[in-house]
């Protein structure tokens, strides 16, 4: 594997494949988090770091590949790591796209688009996390694209055993504080909803809280917006938390909200569904694919805080509907998005890629 060493997605893929009995070597330009990887995963730190290493570490990667002689190399992230693998001559290569490498990078310039196309066309097999991303990739390459979603650990992400019927009603999200994740839209949605319910259902409004987990470049700007909207008293910016703390946080929510402008998949949405939460999402490509509108949650137009507020109000006024949507969401995760199903899909890609060269 060649992938971002500090990403929870890389950690889970590498560990899961090792637990399935594969001999996994992982190379990365970043330092590896202590204790994150299964002891069976062999870690290799490449020189130069990012971003220089994408262009300069090809020789080191080539020597590593010659030494360990892998059956194939699964490269995660089609831009930087895809470039590095292509220059190192990694073959056969399964190239897994993650999101911004497909949705943002090629839009920067014609040069960026052509570089990405060369990376995609060098692969033996291509993977996307969603059908929506697959359609976007198809604009860049004629190669067949396999769907390998980031799976959910349904045992860790499980529903709360008990809820306090008289406690705070928490609307929450776990997202980076960046423009494309629409945290500003969520703040406006919450402010609009709280204002309405303060008039129609004051006791309910008094129990509402908005918890935002994550950090990013817009933190100060978003906190200022919360102050302008006069919701600072019930809005909490909780900061970034370790991934293993997320299940317990989600179990404290009543509604999970993700009103992204752009999101190629939506792992956190599925984690919330696995915890039995109703989800309120935008019609960005990934969320609109994984949420069944009216069945596992609600899908609203991007940047439409009025539509989002209407749906949020509907959820807050109907606990039984919240429970039904949450239960249906967990069932959908169990049927389509468990971690074992994702590993099965990836192993199928590996076998097909190897069959092409044998």
TrEMBL record:
Residues 159-332 form the Glycosyl transferase family domain. It holds the Pfam family Glycos_transf_1. Coiled coil: none annotated. The keyword Transferase applies. Residues 2-130 form the Glycosyltransferase subfamily 4-like N-terminal domain. GO terms for molecular function: glycosyltransferase activity. This is Glycosyl transferase. It comes from Bordetella genomosp. 12. The lineage of its organism: Bacteria, Pseudomonadati, Pseudomonadota, Betaproteobacteria, Burkholderiales.
